[in-house]
Amino acid sequence: MRSALLAGLAAGLLLHAGESASRLVAFPGKAPTLDGVLSRGEWDDATQFYGTTGWTHTFNSVKLPKDLSVHGYVKHDGHRLYFAFDVTDDVLYGIDTPRWLPKENPKANELTPDGYPWFGDEVELLINGSNHWVGAETAAGNSTSWQMVANLTKSRLGGVGTGGLLEGEPRDNTRAWSTYRRWIVEHHQEAVAKVKTTGKGYIVEWAVDFNPCIEISPGRYWSPEMGDRIVGLNIAVGDLDEPEKGAGMFANFNHEDWFAGGKNTRTQLRQWGTLTLMSGRKTPAAVAPKTPAHRSSPTRTSRR
After folding, report:
1. How far apart are CA 64 and CA 88, in angstroms?
2. Residues facing 274 on adjacent strands
3. Helix segments in 161-287, DSSP class H
4. β-strands 273-277, 23-26 pairing
5. CB-based burial label for 234 (10 Å; 0-12, 13-18, 19+)
6. Are 89 and 67 in contact (CB under 8 A)?
7. Which stretches of the chain score pLDDT less than 50?
8. Which residues are 152's β-sheet partners?
9. What is the C-alpha separation between 114 and 101, in angstroms, rounded?
10. Separation in Å, CA 290 to CA 2, 83, 119
11. What are the Cα distances from residue 117, in Å, to 62, 71, 204, 256, 264?
């Protein structure tokens, strides 16, 4: 199994150097079964990565791995990009706790743009297909750059009570919301989120069609025939416990930890890390530590 950050290889392939040192590499592998179970051998051909140690925390910092940590996997089969997240979390919102609502938004669990898709225990995936930006812009909400949510206790296709995929940000952009919904309904993106059968926490397995979800240049979606390509990447893991654990934080969140970016700038494209899409199986020249590094940047604006 490969280490999380193949730094020497990724640095050599870099197309647009961003401000983050966080990098992952996705090699070709076998398509997994999206069932919320990490079956034996299913992800052996994937790159592995670990968090939340070394990641950027938005709210309370994580003190113990049993409170919030993640063992992740990434690969592709030439047609779809696959992620798996094995999340350790000692308290699951809406399962170990009531489905309480924050004072900031009593509609937080509505499956509309008025709700908070990321409210709950969740993983967010952010992709910038061209790995290009102009200034401090965030995800456009289309095939060039997007931010979507896999929530443990609500989903577009299953409703409140069933984990899975939800529309993400910018949720106030009707065109983005419509695009995200279409991707979910037409299964261009699929995610299953289930409570672990052993241990505390949950599993997310997520698939993304390269076409129409990862546009590397106008009208061109990545395929192995194009060769190795670097795209922008960020990942967030959110942890909602009892309200008192998040006292003083926005919406009483306990934790929200990010693979790359500054505390209040982590959704800006320029702050994201990178994911190298490998056209074939290549042996890296160097292997970096398993825990992604990150570099904080000056605080500016925040999504929430």
Report:
1. 10
2. 23, 232
3. 174-185, 210-213
4. parallel
5. buried
6. yes
7. 1-19, 283-303
8. none
9. 13
10. 9, 16, 29
11. 22, 23, 16, 14, 19
d(CA 221, CA 145): 12
DSSP state of 292: P
Residue 298 class from Cβ within 10 Å (0-12 exposed, 13-18 middle, 19+ buried)? Answer: exposed
Burial 182-213 (b: 16+ CB within 10 A, else e): ebbeeebbbbbbbbbeeeebbbbbbbbbbeeb
The strand pairing partners of 236, in sequence order, are 124, 258
Q: HSE-up of 119 (CA within 13 Å, CB side)?
A: 26
**Tokens 């009570």 found at:** 161
Map residue 89 onto helix, strand or coil.
strand
Task: Say whether the peptide bond before residue 52 is cis (omega within 30 degrees of 0).
Answer: yes
Residue where the block lists tokens 């009483």: 252
Q: What is the 3-state secondary structure (H, E, C) of 113-159?
A: CCCCCCCCCEEEEEEECCCCCCCCCCCCCCCCEEEEEEECCEECCCE
Phi, psi angles (nearest 5°) of residue 136: -105, 25
- Both tokens assigned to 10: 């990724």
Distance between CA 259 and CA 234 in Å, rounded?
6
Tokens of residue 279, six digits: 């056209």
Per-residue pLDDT, 21 = 67
**Alpha-carbon distance values, 12 to 56, 276, 295 (Å):** 25, 11, 20
Q: What is the pLDDT of residue 113?
A: 97
pLDDT of amino acid 198: 87
Closest CA to 180 of 81, 113, 270, 108: 113
- Name the β-bridge partners of 124: 149, 236
**Span 273-304, pLDDT tens digits:** 999 999 997 644 323 333 433 333 322 233 45
pLDDT at 20 (0 to 100) = 55
CB 284 within 8 A of CB 23: no
Segment 172-222, tens digit of pLDDT = 999 999 999 999 999 999 999 999 998 899 999 999 999 999 999 999 999
